[in-house]
Amino acid sequence: MIRSAPRFGTTVGRAQLSEPASFRSAFDRAVVIFHHTEQVFCELGEVWGLIWTLANLAHLDHLRGDDECADRLFRESVTLAHGTHLSGVDRRSGLGGLR
Fold first, then answer.
1. Which of 67, 71, 73, 85 has an alpha carbon 20 to 30 Å from 59's alpha carbon atom?
2. What pTM was estimated for this model as a whole?
3. pLDDT tens digits for range 46-68
4. Count of CB atoms within 10 A of residue 39's CB?
C-alpha cells in the first residue's frame, strides 16, 4: 500500500519504511516539521499546542537515543502544562476540550 503525502511531495509505503535510509528520511522530516510547528505555536502564543509539540519532539529524541534532550523537552512540556493549568489559561486545544 502506498500513500501519497502531497503537502510534502513524498510517497511513503510499508516497503519503503522498512529500509533504514527511508525510515531516517521520514523521521528527519518529522523532526523538521515538529520544530517548525514549535516556532508557529510560540509566535501565536498557543501554549497547549506548544506543550504537545514539545512532548512529541521529546518522544522523537528518545527514539533516536538522545535521552538527555528528551528528558529536557519532556520536563519543559510538563512544566508548561502545570503552569498553564494553574493559571487558568483556556486549554481547549490539544486536550479535546477538557477543563
1. 85
2. 0.64
3. 999 999 999 999 999 998 899 99
4. 11
